[in-house]
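tool_call: predict_structure(chain=1)
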Amino acid sequence: MSEVSDEDFREILAQTRHFVRSAVVPRESEILAEDRVPDDLREAAKSMGLFGYAIPQEWGGLGLDLTQDVELAMEFGYTSLALRSMFGTNNGIAGQVLVGFGTDEQKKQWLEGIASGDVVASFALTEPGAGSNPAGLRTKAVRDDAGDWVVNGQKRFITNAPTADLFVVFARTRPADDRGAGIAVFLVPADADGVEVGAKDAKMGQEGAWTADVNFTDVRVPASALVGGSEDIGYRAALITLARGRVHIAALAAGAAQRALDESVAYAATATQGGTPIGDFQLVQAMLADQQTGVMAGRALVRDAARKWVTDEDRRIAPSAAKVFCTEMAGQVADLAVQIHGGTGYMREVPVERIYRDVRLLRLYEGTSEIQRLIIGGALVKAAQRTAANS
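tool_result:
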């Protein structure tokens, strides 16, 4: 049961949609050119509670559940994805590790700041040799004689690293064994000795959404920094948090696809070829039809996956199915949008050109499309094998 009633949520959603479409959309070219979200938009997002919309109300957040989260995410997807990226890790993969697995003391120390936006939390999992599969992790944490943990390793492509106040760091404390993967999670303040954030990455798209490498060299944190107070929580925390995040990313993709569709329809209705609006041509209408069908299917799948997450009916196959379908669909819809616009669609600062580049990343992070297919196929086969063994 969500902490927010349907009536209250309708108001939150309406305010969010108004903010995105009236305040952010007109400034997309500015975000692209300057590679940053303007400070006044960041402050407006903070005042609206967007840095903590998925954090429980007892810690100062709005307390939205995943079925409500995805409705907001579809609105965030409608504009530059840098907007959502600003507060995405607070509400998503970083914040949810604390919400789901942190001790009472850890929640008390960090969650209110995360919810207000005064603390930017960053999820430090990916490494040069460990991407979609956390089992390949090489960052190490060793306990010293004083009971502290000493962390060493390198993380790559870490979202919000240049602005982070807190890193939620995944590190190996022992080799994988019968007890589990040997991966733990640590809360490492960004200003701790030995934490070094690299230069901001130059990416194909998503200007204004900052990522960077983060190096940890003999970074010492107290025993109280171990999330959940247990070495064996980490791997499970990563997998569960990533699965939840996949539903959110699927919704973001559906929102971006909706924007690409809307831009395509508007262009087709007004641009002319030989004096005739191109939308009158059947082949253009066919492209619009494929876009519309993809968007509608994606929205329905996202909402179904979010509902199944909240009811605990399916937290494995549905998130991966939603993510692989919606992110691949958004790529196809964006590609068609460029095609419908013709040469105009290839010009910088035309919205569909930006969307085309922005959505390409969605098929890669929080588990590639290939990993999602392995999760789905593997889970289906295992379920069938269990049924066969019990019959």
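agent: Residues 165 and 264 are 40 Å apart (CA to CA). Proceeding to next step.
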